[in-house]
Amino acid sequence: MKIFIKNIKQLVQVEEKPKLLVKGREMSELNTIKDSWLLLESGKISSFGKMQEIDNAIIDGLSQDAKVIDASGKMVFPSWCDSHTHLVYPQSREVEYIDKIKGLSYEEIAKRGGGILNSAKKLHKASEEELVESALIRLNEIAAYGTGAVEIKSGYGLNTEDELKMLRVIRQLKKLSPLTIKSTFLGAHAVPAEYRSDQSKYVDIVINEMIPMVAAEEFADYIDVFCDRGFFTIEDTDRILMAGMKYGLRPKIHANELDYSGGIQVGVKYNALSVDHLEYTGDEEIQALLNSETMPTVLPGAAFFLGMIYAPVRKMIDAGLPVALASDFNPGSSPSGNMQFILSMGSIAYKMLPEEGINATTINGAYAMGLSEELGSIAVGKKANVFITSEIPTYEYMPYSYGNNKVETVILNGKVIE
C-alpha cells in the first residue's frame, strides 16, 4: 500500500545521506523541507521533496487504492525512538509516590521493601496474559504521542522463572504491537531481600542460571545492570557483562543516577551501546565517553519525578558528545512514556535547543537501540514510522508547548494507526 502525504508545512529530520548518530555541534543542526511531500510504499519511506518540484510521475504512479493525506498547515516528523523503558509491570505504585512527597528518598523506599522489590512481588503473582494486556495499553498510549520504537527491559522478576516470564511477555508484545520493540535482560535490577547479606550469590545466579537460559531462548537483544550506589558494584557489573558478552549480549547500563558509581566507565569498557541516567557525570566520565561508541542517554522523567539533580547535558554536548533522551517509563520513578514531554524537558531542564532535543529523541534514540540504520529520520529506505502533527506554527513549538498532544496521525510500518 502507498501513502502519499502532500502539502506538508515542514518535513522534519530529513537525511539525504543517513547518519548513525549526531554529536556535539551537529546536534544543533536539523534538516527540514518546507512545503513538501512524502511517499511511503510497502512499509518504507520511498521518496520525498518539495511540492513545487514534484515529478508528475509520482502523482501518476499513485494507484486508486493509494491513501492521500493533505497535511496543509501540519508537519511530519520521524517517530520518537524511546530507548529506555520498563513498561511491562503489574501495577502502579502511587502509594510510594506519597512516601516521596513526605520526604523519603528513592533509596530509603527501596531499603524497606518498596521500589523495584515491590513490583517484583506483584509481578510474581501476575499471569503472562495480564502483563501482555496491560503493556499493550501502554504501548498504544505512547504510540498516540508519537513513539514508534521502544526498548523494554525485564528486571521486575529478580528470579529466573519470573525474569523469563517478563521476557516471554516482551516477545509476545513484539508480535502483537506495530511498534518496533527491542528487549533487554535486566536480571541485575535490584538485589532480592533474601540475598542482601550475600549479594555475590545472587550475581552468581544471574551469571550461571539466568544468562544461559535467556541466551538459549534468544529472549533478549541486550543485557543491562543497575550499576550504582546501593545496587550493583563495579565488580558485580564487570562479572555480569563479561558473562553476557560470551553469549553475544551487548550491554546497556544503568549508570551514575545516584552517585559517581563508575558505571559509565565500566559501560565504556565493555562497549555498551548506551549508558543511561547519568545525573552524576564529571570530566572523567565525559572523557571516557568521548573515546567510545557508547551513547550517553539521559532520562529527564526520572530526574524530574524524583527531584534529583539534572545531568550536565549542556557540558556533555559542548564537549562533543552525542546525547539521547528517553522516558524511563516505569511505575516507580517515571510513570509516563510521553516523549513529547521528554522533548520539552530537554529544553526546560537541560537547556537543549529544540534541534538538539529532536535529534536526541529521534536519530540518537534510534542509535541507542541499534536501530538508526532503519529508524530515527526521514530517509529513503528507512521504515515508514512517522507522525503528522496538528496545525502548529514551527517545529520549535513541539518542545515549547508542553502538556498537550500535538500528534494527529500516527503511521507505523507504512500503515495509519487508528
Strand count, sense and barrel status of the largest sheet are: 8 strands, mixed
- Low-confidence segments, ≥5 residues, pLDDT <50? none
Helix content: 25-40%
The residue-averaged pLDDT reads 96
Shape: globular
CATH topology of the largest domain: TIM Barrel
Report on this model:
The structure is a single chain. With 418 residues, the protein is α/β, with parallel strands linked by helices. It has two domains: 2-78 and 377-417, Urease, subunit C, domain 1 (Roll); 80-367, Alpha-Beta Barrel (TIM Barrel). The protein has helices spanning 56-60, 94-101, 106-111, 116-125, 128-144, 160-176, 199-216, 234-246, 263-269, 283-290, 300-306, 313-318, 339-348, 354-361, 363-367, 397-400, and strands at residues 2-12, 32-41, 44-50, 67-70, 74-78, 80-82, 147-153, 180-188, 222-227, 250-255, 274-277, 295-298, 324-325, 386-391, 407-412, 415-417. Strands 1, 2, 3, 4, 5, 14, 15 and 16 form an eight-stranded mixed β-sheet that branches. An eight-stranded parallel β-sheet has the order 6-7-8-9-10-11-12-13. Strand 8 (180-188), helix 7 and strand 9 (222-227) form a beta-alpha-beta unit.
Features:
418 residues, Urease, subunit C, domain 1, TIM Barrel, eight-stranded parallel beta sheet
Please render the helix and strand layout as text.
Layout: E1 2-12, E2 32-41, E3 44-50, H1 56-60, E4 67-70, E5 74-78, E6 80-82, H2 94-101, H3 106-111, H4 116-125, H5 128-144, E7 147-153, H6 160-176, E8 180-188, H7 199-216, E9 222-227, H8 234-246, E10 250-255, H9 263-269, E11 274-277, H10 283-290, E12 295-298, H11 300-306, H12 313-318, E13 324-325, H13 339-348, H14 354-361, H15 363-367, E14 386-391, H16 397-400, E15 407-412, E16 415-417
Helix pairs in contact: 5-6, 6-7, 7-8, 13-14
